[in-house]
Design brief:
Methyltransferase, Cobalt-precorrin-4 Transmethylase, Domain 2; 3-stranded parallel beta sheet; alpha/beta
């Protein structure tokens, strides 16, 4: 998924610093550009954030049109603030072109609304990784009390711990839940179940792409469609 504005900017770019997960068809739109892969992948060799910042500043100082291309929306867990600070400190002007965040893309793919009257009045975007790559320090009790829809980015590797904390904090184990791998791509896969069953579903699927987790009553129709809630009620 790509905005028209982003496609136009790529068409005139002379240098593109891109994430590893960007689809090749999107990179092909930058026909005039030098492509530099600065991707950051969990568990794999990645470009350090400081190096990316230096590259951005160095490329911009050449006077060429530079694009920093991120997957999804750069302002949602995209570490854009660090890169913007580096550019501002160097006195380099920049523009932010918003994209389609994975949460919105997943909701569209599942044909569901993240919020629903009387069911899910709030939506919470969370990261599945802490600053050092471990379990993030969320207030799980507050999240369980708030209800609404929880959307966890990069949660594939920590789903077991996240679920354990949420259930301990009071979330119903039978709450509908979905894990989506490679949201919006042709290789997208969905694993529908409950909060309690989600870790095993993800483990058995062995995803290799980024995984988005979604939990909450707004997912009830998705769970019913897959026969999950009927099975539970039958028990």
């Amino acid at each position: 998924m790509l905005t028209v504005r982003a496609a136009r900017v790529l068409g005139v770019a002379e240098i593109v610093l891109h994430d590893s997960l960007v689809d090749a068809r999107i990179l092909a739109l930058a026909q005039k550009a030098e492509l530099i892969d600065v991707g950051k992948r969990c568990g794999k060799r990645s470009t350090a954030q400081g190096v990316i910042n230096e590259l951005l500043v160095g490329c911009a100082r050449t006077g060429r049109m530079v694009v920093r291309l991120k997957g999804g929306d750069p302002m949602v867990f995209g570490r854009a603030s660090e890169e913007m600070r580096a550019l501002a400190a160097a006195g380099i002007a920049y523009e932010v072109v918003p994209g389609v965040s994975a949460a919105m893309a997943a909701a569209a793919s599942l044909k569901m609304s993240l919020s629903q009257r009387r069911v899910a009045r709030t939506v919470h975007f969370l990261t599945g990784h802490g600053a050092e790559g471990g379990m993030p320090a969320h207030d799980f009790a507050a999240l369980a009390r708030a209800g609404g829809t929880l959307v966890v980015y990069m949660g594939g590797q920590t789903v077991g711990g996240l679920v354990a904390h949420l259930i301990e904090a009071g979330m119903a184990p039978e709450m509908p839940a979905v894990a989506v791998e490679n949201v919006s791509l042709p290789t997208e896969r969905r694993f529908v179940g409950t909060v309690a069953s989600l870790p095993l579903l993800v483990q058995q699927a062995r995803p290799v792409g980024p995984v988005l987790l979604m939990m909450g009553r707004a997912l009830e129709d998705v769970a019913v469609e897959q026969g999950i809630l009927e099975v539970m009620r039958g028990d």
